[in-house]
């Protein structure tokens, strides 16, 4: 067994506290303090009963004032707020996906970006009815990129990728009138519906919330994932490391933070450039070390094994080590606090996207056409900054764990092929996993996703739930900051199988996998939708019948809500550890936790007691098993 | 019924039988009556290996049954099914040992029943060196005697040690197929409980060659899984008792291959309808690579035949 040991949340916190000491020395602010300043939060906002979508308002609903000036009741206000929240998340993922499609449009054999997985491209082309025979792969890429871009604004029809869902799911969507049309249109419709004097009927607003979510999961995010794989390679299992200890004291540390792999991939390329390495040596460093934060970290970890420094609430810690030469960001989940914070250190806070511009940052505009030069300039800027380091401020917490990552759907199926028997089984399916589940060896699966949120002790909910689930023979697939929590704790080390129940342990041994599988970034939750669809097709069951649930125990972003909506709308019950801002409306709560089940055969469960949340998930999984008689 | 429910019910059945068999024996002989297998230093080898406790008389056997009962938890989890499988094997061992009271000779040719330590030591070395690349436990009756014998023969030709339980023994006899320890085809017995004599071989191999400490159940299971290349071929129909025994085999790391349509578990419980493919399916499931190169001669050739006595005529 060796001497495998998880890193505890207490150890995470001790490391953070030590870093905050450095922060105190240089007068740095930190989220821990800002949370205090913002507590207690406004109750109207927390319950979603405040409306400021027209200038007759702001209006807020109380027992004495049951309607806004326009006459909208609390259910309409809460519903509209929820839909706008969703639209924000959907727009964010979808725009990320769009950027990727644009990048795909620039691929060239000698360009910044190339086609690394032509097979995947051809597969998608065939799916979309595009002739591939005898076509140059780059011409095909451009053609598909254009088609994909049209998915964002096509005037007629619904999303092409919907066809990947089992027929039953497609029928449900059609019947409920929630099939997403053009991706952008659903966001625009959402904003239209929520304008003053449009929809105030909760049912209509929640229906559009689901449709807008689906346009993300089965549209924007799926484009993001699929075409990232085409350009950067479909992830395969590989080993890496996680937690702040992956930063190296005598190296130039470049942290990539944000979401779009077009940037991070290019930075990684140039960090390996001999010219840059020589430059690093000339300034007294041993070399260049790239590590990641948040989803862009997941992207480069999945494809290149780039180590993962931390998740969402670790982003300030990276700078607080005093050993970060540059934190290079693109879009989404980037604390504007990084600007002022980096000023307390030698760190360069480099923003790169016109979408995410922040004060106190150095803006090096990055775009696909000039990606090479941009990335080189960024790396050079970081390397040259090494000499400005203040050694007295350097402290890197020596915490890190081994992690095996890279479980795309393709990789999972390949892994499952290894446990088939060539005398009886076919390969290339999810059937071995279904067999493990039907026989009871595995009780089910949980897709754990989402962010950190100071409302929950950071990472504790992720890690506690994972430990509980795997001990109960439930396999866990992960993405986003949840995945990083697992990696930092050590749950992605194959030796973590010792923490599993006998069933999952045996599966891990036979398939040679860790008990929790890293499926990638937040857009890669689209991979989970594909996996669920494949499981349904291979088993002949509906997605909602599978003993499979989703969970976002520490969610915080609008994206998380959009994700939740498409996961639920795909037929997967979803469990939240943080309350959405809807509690002011019994009708909206009723719909989300129950009513939508009539449309999509799944709904939300909210439970802030994390241990109970775990019990509820296990209970739901067992209910699904009982219903199937397995 | 779930797969685990079948295991649990098979375990319950065997437990019930064991309980009454022990009570009957105590009523007949008294609690002080000695119980032991011949030619072994390991008491009841399976029970001893799992718990570290030796059993000397009927009273102790009854106590041991109480320990076995504690393994019979009933949650719907693989661990519970595994432990029930182990409990089933232990019950089988208890039933079997009762047959040996007062130096009785319960098995007669061609069946062996319990195998003494010297046989294990003799087989153990070639097992460790890989000269015996695997151990097949064949359980029940093949669809036809011809198919059954062909399967036995195929393993024998690969140097695999074959143990037989139940109907397959009659099938070999009916076909006039030569069996015996010398040709490494060992009929154990016709009752399903005699399968424990095969388990006993694997377990004593772990104690003798693996230096596993009696009572270290986890270490034992790890050793058998990693080091003892055994597998089970169980012919349809499978009743709950056989499934419960199968769970015990899987717990030790031995895959079960059957021609009955039932639950499937990758690498562990494999449904192979075509008996002629049992051999290839089993070897692949247990990752057994046959070292011997096939020599193209008209008779089966393998180390299994080294001990064969060639009779005139
Ligand atoms: S839309 Fe209605 S409730 Fe909202 S701010 Fe305007 S008047 Fe108030
Ligand atoms: S999981 Fe949440 S915090 Fe982390 S990158 Fe994704 S949206 Fe941002």
From TrEMBL, chain A:
Matching entries from SUPFAM superfamilies are given as:
Prismane protein-like
Write out the residues that bind [Ni-4Fe-4S] cluster: 259, 295, 333, 451, 481, 522
GO molecular function terms listed in the Swiss-Prot or TrEMBL record: 4 iron, 4 sulfur cluster binding; anaerobic carbon-monoxide dehydrogenase activity; hydroxylamine reductase activity; nickel cation binding; peroxidase activity
| E.C. designation(s) | 1.2.7.4
Binding of [4Fe-4S] cluster 1, residues: 42, 50
Q: Which positions are annotated as binding [4Fe-4S] cluster 2?
A: 51, 54, 59, 70
Name the UniProt key words of this record, in alphabetical order.
4Fe-4S, Iron, Iron-sulfur, Metal-binding, Nickel, Oxidoreductase
The protein depicted here goes by the name: Carbon monoxide dehydrogenase
Q: Which source organism does the UniProt entry give?
A: Candidatus Choladousia intestinavium
State which gene encodes it: cooS
